[in-house]
Known about the structure:
rod-shaped; 3 helices; two-stranded antiparallel sheet; Helix Hairpins; mainly alpha
Amino acid sequence: MAKAEDDGKEPMNEQAVANIYGAMRAEINQIYSKITELEMEVSEHSLVINAIKPLDSSRRCYRMIGGVLVERTIKEVLPAVQRNKEGIEEVITRLNEALEKKKKELTEFESKYKIRIKKTDGEMKDESGKMEGNAQGVLVGPPSGSE
């Protein structure tokens, strides 16, 4: 749906514009989710690398490959885990580039169709609460004179 405007066909009505806009925002959210998921995987790979790096390279270790637990040595596993981590980091870089491109497309779409996001009453109340102060979650005891 997001490609409708790219084909030279203008959306027919406000509903079509809203649908395209919603699809574009959903796509951006999917990219954000995937980046977050992959960053967690990089973190897990780093933990594994840091745990096995100081160990003897001839020591046995186990690695999950395609759902099968395989016995290897640290010498064999460590380079593979490092390559996997680097590959995931490369994918994250590409996803970040795609995300920036999509955000730019979304901004252009918003300006072309003069899209403004209306805040709901709940969001406005939240903002007014933030303006009052950051005293949320603070417990205050009774005045010292009332003991």
